[in-house]
Amino acid sequence: MCGIVGYVGFRPAADLIIRGLRRLEYRGYDSAGLAVLNGDGLVVTKASGKLSSLEKKLGPTLPQGTVGLGHTRWATHGAPTTTNAHPHTDQTGRIAVIHNGIIENAGALRTALEQRNHTFESETDTEVLAHLIGELYQGDLELAVAAALREVDGAYGIAVISADEPDCLVAARKGSPLIVGVGDGEWFVASDASALLEHTRSVVYLDDGEMVVLSRDGYRVRSLDVMEISKKIDRIEWDLATIERGGFEHFMLKEIFDQPTSLSNTLSGHLLEDEGTARLEGLNLTNDELKQIDRIIITACGTSWHAALIGEYMIEELARVPVEVEYASEFRYRNPVVDQRTLVIGISQSGETADTLAALVEAKNRGARTIGVVNVVGSTIAREVDGGTYLHAGPEVGVASTKAFTSQLGALALFALRLARLKNLSILQGRQFVEALKALPGQIEEILGRVDEIESLAERFLDTSNALYLGRGVNFPVALEGALKLKEISYIHAEGYPAAEMKHGPIALIDENMPVVFIAPRDAVHSKIVSNIEEVKARGGKVVAFVNDGDHEIERLADATFTIPETLDLLTPILTTIPLQLVAYYVAVRRGCDVDQPRNLAKSVTVE
Ligand code: G6P
Predict the structure, then answer these.
(1) What is the structure's pLDDT at 506?
(2) In 492-503, which positions are buried (b, 16+ CB within 10 angstroms) versus exposed (e)?
(3) Using one digit for the tens of pLDDT, what is the confidence trace for 292-328?
(4) Of 7, 243, 438, 578, most Cβ neighbours within 10 A?
C-alpha cells in the first residue's frame, strides 16, 4: 500500500528518496511522486504507473536540494492518474503533502474550502488536506499542520514541506505507520523501516497523535497540541541482505525457499523438550491467567485469517478451549461479546493491517486480554496488544504471503501446546508434539528438494480459468489458502471448499477442464476424502492430489499426485501448504504475471 519517504540532511534528497521508494515497491502501488526544496521553491514531479515512469519523467538530472519527500500511491480516492498522485500542493503551490490513509471528512472539508474560493485539481482527500494546511499557515509549518490535523477525521501518515521553511519537514501519524530514521547529521521519515535501512538502524516509532519535526539541527516529537514528547531510539536488528532476493528470480520464490529457516527461527528458543511444552514469555500471561481463559477469538485478514482457522483446529483439539475465528473487518463492527476471560489473538504479518488493529483495540476496550502473533518487530499491532509472540520469519517482501503463513502456524502450534499442557495434555503427548515440530523444517527442505515435480504439476493449470481446492478438517483452511495463492498471483479464479461441501454447489462446475486439487494426507478423515475424490472423478474432473507416501488408493484415482512427508495430523498444514505455494508461483510465472507485485494488491493494507 502507499509508501512515504522524507529526508532532511546534507545529501541530494531526490536520489535518496527514489532509492527509499524502491524499497517500498513491494507494498503495492500504482503511481508515484516526489517534491524537493531547491532553494527557490518546490519542484514537484509525479507520474502514474511504476517508479520507472517517474524516473523517466525526471530525466537524467534530478531536482537539486537536500530536503524533500516522495510517495508511492495505492489508489483509494480517485483513479491512479498523474494528477491524483502525491505530493499534492496547497492553493499557493508552496506547501507539498504526501499522505497514507483516508481522510474521512474530506468531502465536507472540500466543500467548505471551495466556498472559500479554493480550487482543486485532483479527486483526492490529500489535496484537501494540503489546502487546509496552506490556509492555516502563518509562517510556522508545524503549527499549521497541527491545526489542520485537529480538523481531520480518519487515518493518516503524512509528511509536509514548505518552500517558506526550506530546512524543515513535518510528519504526523494517526492509524498509519511512520518511523523516524536517525542518521548522522541527516534525518529520515518513512512508512516502513526497509526504506531507511540503507542509511541507519536507529529509529523512533511514532505513535498515534504524534508529530515529528525534522530540521538540520535534529528532530523533535510533539503532540498535536504541540507538547514535547520524549521518545526512545530503537535499533533495527535485521539488515539489507535479508531483504535482497539472494539469487532467486522473485522474492516470492526466495521466501518459499526460506521456510526451513524461517520456521526454525519461529520455533527456536520456545521448545522445552523434556517438559513437552513451549515457553512463550512474551504473552505476559501467568499460568493461572492462561488457565482461566474460557474462550478464544482469533482475528485477522487474508492469509493470516487462514492461519487463524488452522489455529482454531489446533487449540480446540489440543487444549479443548472453544475458539472462534473472525474476519477483523467484521469483528470490529459487530458489537462483539467479550469479557476478561476471553483471549483475543490478532494475527498479522505486517502488524499494520488497519482492520486487525482496530479489532484488537475494540476487544481491549471491552475488557478482553489481547495478544498478537506478528512478524514485523515494533509494528503498531505489536505495540498495541497486551502481549504476544514475534514470528522472526524475517522480512516478507512478496505480496503473496508464504513464509509468514507457515511461521504463523508454527507460532499457533506453540501456543496450543503451551495451553494444552496447562490444561490436560499429557507430558508424553507434549513431547511427541515437540518432536514433530522439530522435524518440520527438515521435512519442508525435503519437499523443496522436489521442486521440479511441482513445476511440472503446475502445467495442468496453465490454460484453465477456474480451479477448485478441496480439503477436510485441518486441511480445509489449507484449501482456502491454496486457492487464494493461485488467484492472487496468477489471476485464475480459484475457490477453496471443505471437500464434502463440494456436493452442495461447486460440483456443478466440474467438467473435464476443471482442475480439482485435493489436500489429502493420511489423517483421521482420509477415507472420507477418498469418497469425495471418487465423486469428482465420476464427473470427469481432473484431480491433482497432495498425499502421503504409499497412498496407492488415491494414486490410482488421481490424475497426478505429489507426496508429502508424514507428521502429526494437526501439523500437516505446515507441509501441505508448501507445494500449493509453489504451484501458484510456477503457474503465475508461466502466465507472465508480476509475481511479487500482483495487480491491485498491497502488502500491508493500512486502510479499512
Ligand atoms: C494483504 C496481503 C495479504 C495478507 C493480508 C493481511 O491483503 O496482500 O498477503 O495476508 O494483507 O496482512 P497481515 O500483514 O495483517 O498479515
Answers:
(1) 85
(2) bebbbbbbbebe
(3) 999 999 999 999 999 999 999 999 999 999 999 999 9
(4) 7
Give the span between the Cα atoms of 193 and 451, in whole angstroms: 33
What is the predicted pLDDT for the residue at 241? 67
- Give the percent of the chain with pLDDT over 70: 100
In eight-state DSSP terms, residue 474 is G
d(CA 217, CA 311): 49
Nearest CA, atom 2, ligand 1: 603
Instruction: Identify which of 162, 165, 136 has the alpha carbon closest to the alpha carbon of residue 149.
Output: 136
Full DSSP string of 494-513? EEEEEGGGGGGTGGGG-STT
With a cut of 70, say whether residue 594 has pLDDT above it: yes
CA angle 384, 389, 392 (to 5 degrees): 115
- DSSP, collapsed to helix, strand or coil, labels residue 169 as strand
In angstroms, the Cα distances linking 161 to 44, 130, 187 are 11, 10, 14
Which position among 254, 485, 487, 603 bears the catalytic label? 603
Residues 507-531: what's their mean pLDDT? 92
pLDDT digits (tens, 9 = 90+) for 392-403: 998 898 999 999
How many CA atoms, within 13 angstroms, populate the side-chain half-sphere of residue 163?
16
Measured by CA distance, the residue closest to atom 7 of ligand 1 is: 302
